[in-house]
Design a protein that fits this description.
Blueprint: E1 7-11, H1 16-27, E2 31-36, H2 39-51, E3 56-60, H3 66-80, E4 85-88, E5 92-93, H4 103-131, E6 134-139, H5 152-171, E7 177-184, E8 187-188, E9 203-204, H6 205-217, E10 222-225, H7 227-236, H8 241-247, H9 249-253, E11 260-261
Parallel strand pairs: 1-2, 1-4, 2-3, 4-6, 6-7, 7-10, 8-9
Antiparallel strand pairs: 5-11
Amino acid sequence: MSFAQQVAVITGASSGIGWELAKVLAGQGCKVGLIARRKENLDKLADQIRQAGGTAAIAAADVGDRQQTLAAIADLRRQLGPVDLVIANAGVGTPTFLSPINVADVERMTRVNYLGTVYAIEAVLPEMLARRQGHLAAVSSLSAYKGLPGESGYCASKAAVNSYMEGLRIHLRDKGIAVTTICPGFIRTPMTAINKFHMPWLLEADDAARRIVRALARRRKVYNFPWQTAFLMKLTRWLPDWVLAKMMQEYNENPPVAEIEK
């Protein structure tokens, strides 16, 4: 399908995958609405898109805040028109510690990664149902498929996204609305920049964005990529706990401590 003249809203558009998704979609004639906390970054991206002949509008918001998210998407709808595609891409990641447990970080990941997806969908779904058309997409992670030591909170937040989107997809199957769950492996973004370990099959953000847009055009239900990392994650489900604990030992001894927004 073509994205020309459609309206797409992208959360987490101020960097990484969201930034590149906006550029790819705008390059295909899509009018893009950009949401993130960092307004100055959104302004830069919108300027790039407009200079290239595209259409972009911005609304600064923290997607972990329901009212901010609803207001931001309502603002973008007023500027661009009814939303055809929403991509809930915003996400944060922080390691999970044991002593003390960093509950506040886990709560933050849950609000942004999972509830931020719910809030974005809440903002567009009633109108899509009324029109009997639209596309809901969420950028999750291959880590949703396995609880990893030292990443319990992050994995759980992404697993929640997968389950939520799966249930929606089945519930909406006869309503004219497509639902896509996107599960990337390692992508070079600010979130992965602090990782000191080897990240196998690391993709550049622009490459990931092009792959995602192709999957969206094909109305894929679930898109796991790259296939090598997806296969590796499937294998981890069969590994004994002690093997995975040993593999993650060095990471857990020196985990990155800053919250990183993708």
